[in-house]
Amino acid sequence: MRIELLGILAVAIGCLGWFLRLRFSLYVFFASTLLGAGAALILTGFGGATIQPAHLLLGFLVLRAIAGRDFWGVTQTLKFPNEGFWLLATGVYAVVASIFFPRLFAGATSVFAVARTVIGPGIVLMPLSPTSGNITQPIYFIGDILCFLIAYAWCRNLSGLRALAQAAIACAVVNLGFAALDLGTYVTGTTGLLSFMRNANYRMLDEASIGGFKRLVGSFPEASAFAYATLGLFAFCLRLALAGVRPRLTGTLAALSLGAIVMSLSSTGYAAAGGLLAAMFVVSLAQLLSRPVMRGTLAFLALSPLIIVLVIGIRLNEPGWRVVSTMFDKTIVTKMDSDSGLERARWNEQALKNFADTDGLGAGVGSVRASSFPIAVLGNIGVVGALTYGAFLFGVLFRRRGRWQAPFPSACQSGARWACFAQLLGASVAGSFIDLGLPFFIFAGLACARPKLAPQAARAPRQAAPLPAAAVGAAS
């Protein structure tokens, strides 16, 4: 095992967090999830597997949560049929599958897996057998479960929910800052200055461009990972803006985040952002027809048709249209015909074959690489895992019973649901594993939290929220 500079900093900050307010730990932890290209620890005994700073800090948060009393209130969500029950059931099945299925079905099917070749690590088709991925991927998923439970425990109190919402907004600011650094160092030829946070054993595509335009990657190894992370923050800020929660700040962050997604030139980001905006438009329109809505929602509905006007204006400008059509062609139309697109299509085809070859049980977490989250779930954990995971995701997105009713926390939970929805769209386009990432499970915990207070207190008007919501009707 080798500890990196980011690892030393993470340990120091994690220890410091024990002596400071929880708000400090929340801000640092949420921001650390952006270090997707960074390594805190490199496990040389596991083929160079990387432990990211966020997972190291998560360990400190788990210890702090266990030491406190609020964490044990999560037993509520672990009861059938609540969301925590289904997530825990998925985790148990995932661990069992990762231990036994690569051995039970060894040689019965071939999987795309990371292996060392003569030119370095690469993804190759090889017979199914136990690998280091069957250890690391289940550990990541266990981390996801713990992250969900901790976020749920924090958000049972209004102060914890408010702190987590503020941390998410701060994370959006930091993400845009990293994007600006990425673009600035590229323009000035000083990308080496960011090498300290791009030290993971991944292929770094931080200087990739399309049509002469630099693809934004921020603090991630490549553009689609940056777009995926930005999607959740964009959806959260946009929903808060529509609900009247500090609309100038959250609206500005949403607009800038959308611009960053556009500049990533990522087909994943484009498809998911388009689906998110379309769904949010339909829901907002339905709200307008059924009840009074906030001014932010009215503005969103009024401005949405201007996108069509903008497209028409670009079309009438021949040089501008030539640039836009070229970018659209390279990022969307011809994407599936590119080498990368064809390779990812083969991953999905093989993952479905793995699902069939294992009689619907799955080949075990960490065995199968796909290019779509639903297919990755089927290939890795089969029908049983898909059903339990699906029940969890359904609860996150659609269950409302017992959750916060007051305007401000209700708006935050609505934003968290939209953030999860946006990242699910992104993962469905290009997700390789069943792990949806720590930010997804932070938002999921926020979305599912049920107040610890009595129902009357939970519905009481918010008085001291530093992120003031406008009056009533914030949730969707």
Which SSEs are present, and which pair or pack?
Blueprint: E1 2-3, H1 5-17, H2 22-32, E2 41-43, E3 49-51, H3 53-67, H4 83-104, E4 110-117, E5 120-127, H5 133-154, H6 158-188, E6 209-210, E7 213-214, H7 223-242, H8 247-263, H9 267-290, H10 295-303, H11 306-316, H12 318-333, H13 339-357, H14 373-398, H15 407-430, H16 438-448, H17 455-458
Antiparallel strand pairs: 1-2, 2-3, 4-5, 6-7
What would you note in describing this structure?
By secondary structure, the protein is mainly alpha-helical. It has one domain. It contains 17 helices and 7 strands. The strands form 3 sheets. Strands 1-2-3 form a 3-stranded antiparallel sheet. The longest helix is centred in the middle third of the chain and has 31 residues, at 158-188. The radius of gyration is 22 Å and the shape is globular. It starts with a strand and ends in an 18-residue tail after the last helix.
Helix content: 55-70%
Number of helices: 17
Chain-averaged pLDDT: 85
Unreliable runs: 454-466, 468-476
Mass-distribution shape:
globular
| Main sheet record | 3 strands, antiparallel
Number of domains: 1
Order of H and E elements: EHHEEHHEEHHEEHHHHHHHHHHH
Strand sequence of the main sheet, in spatial order? 1-2-3
Strand content: 5-15%
Helix/strand-derived category reads mainly alpha
Rg over alpha carbons: 22 Å
Please give the alpha-carbon distance between the first and last residues. Answer: 47 Å
Total beta-strand segments: 7
